[in-house]
Amino acid sequence: MQRELNALYRDRLKLKVHALACGSHRAEGMWFKKPVNTPVELKALRLRTVGISHVLAEKLGMKPHAIYEPAKTIEALEGGALDATEFGQPWYDEGLRFHRVARHFYYPGWHAPAYMWQLEINLDRWNEMSQAQKGLIGEACRQNIAQAVGEYAANAKGALDRIKARKVQVHTFSKDILDAVRSARDGLIQEFSAKDPDFKRAWESYSSFR
Fold first, then answer.
1. CA 107 to CA 49: how far, in whole Å?
2. Phi, psi at 112, each rounded to 5°
3. How far apart are CA 120 and CA 18, in angstroms?
4. Sign of the four-CA dihedral 202, 204, 208, 210
5. pTM of the model
6. What is the C-alpha to C-alpha distance for residues 87 and 76, in angstroms, rounded to an integer?
7. What Cα–Cα distance (Å) separates residue 170 from each residue in 90, 131, 132?
8. HEC profile of the chain
9. Is the pLDDT of residue 122 over 70?
10. Which end of the chain is more exposed for a tag (fewer CB within 10 A), N or C?
11. pLDDT at residue 101 above 80?
12. Does residue 1 have a pLDDT over 70?
């Protein structure tokens, strides 16, 4: 997938950039004011989310709202304008005190099971580097990913323990809901792939690696 991304930068977007995967975060969670067990119970629920998960939520019959400020999200939950939200990793959400306004935490969430960060380097500077220099940068990125994965595991466990101690019910999504999400996701992938050959190439690369 890295090759496809760099080809997109250079060939389509005409950017002189070389990108390397250089960091990672794992799953975020989702906060609900009431428990949900079936896809039907998701319909018409007002969910704060952004990006592709916003479109996916619409496919599930939800009513997504793009809100970017934590304070406004909490205010909307407390005032009844939202029924659910996703925002960040468990310890980040804990610090924002979402547990005060939503008592059901679903982990991991279906909207962001994992994502990668990338390091972007000017293509001319990258091409000027020796293989040894490129190798050092690549190894630094690999070490950074490994450290991020380890730190995530420790931080998430501690945050989940503290969230439970606040009398929040921590759930996993039912198989019925996950099946509905997977079906909606597959439909979106087909739509995006039909419209965008670059997306199709990237998805096929990702799928073959996975």
1. 15
2. -150, 75
3. 6
4. positive
5. 0.87
6. 14
7. 11, 48, 47
8. CHHHHHHHHHHHCCCCEEEEEEEEECCCCEEECCCCCCHHHHCCCEEECCCHHHHHHHHCCCEEECCCCHHHHHHHHHHCCCCEEECCCHHHHHHHCHHHCCCEEECCCCCCCCEEEEEEEEHHHHHHCCHHHHHHHHHHHHHHHHHHHHHHHHHHHHHHHHHHHCCCEEECCCHHHHHHHHHHHHHHHHHHHHHCHHHHHHHHHHHHHC
9. yes
10. C
11. yes
12. no
Mean pLDDT value across residues 130-156: 94
CA distance 27 to 90: 9
Q: Are 163 and 106 in contact (CB under 8 A)?
A: no
Q: Supply 148's token pair.
A: 């991020």
Structure confidence at residue 195 (pLDDT): 93
Q: Give the right CATH number for 28-113+168-199 from 3.40.190.10, 3.30.420.200, 3.90.550.10, 1.10.3720.10.
A: 3.40.190.10
27-36 pLDDT, tens digit per residue, is 999 999 999 9
CA distance 123 to 128: 9
User: Mean of the pLDDT values across residues 142-149?
Assistant: 93
Q: CA–CA separation, 79 vs 177, rounded Å?
A: 27
Give the residue among 65, 82, 87, 90 at the shortest CA–CA distance from 157. Answer: 90
Contact yes or no for 107/170 (Cβ under 8 A): yes
Confidence of residue 42 (pLDDT cuts 50, 70, 90): very high
Residue 4 has pLDDT above 80, yes or no: no
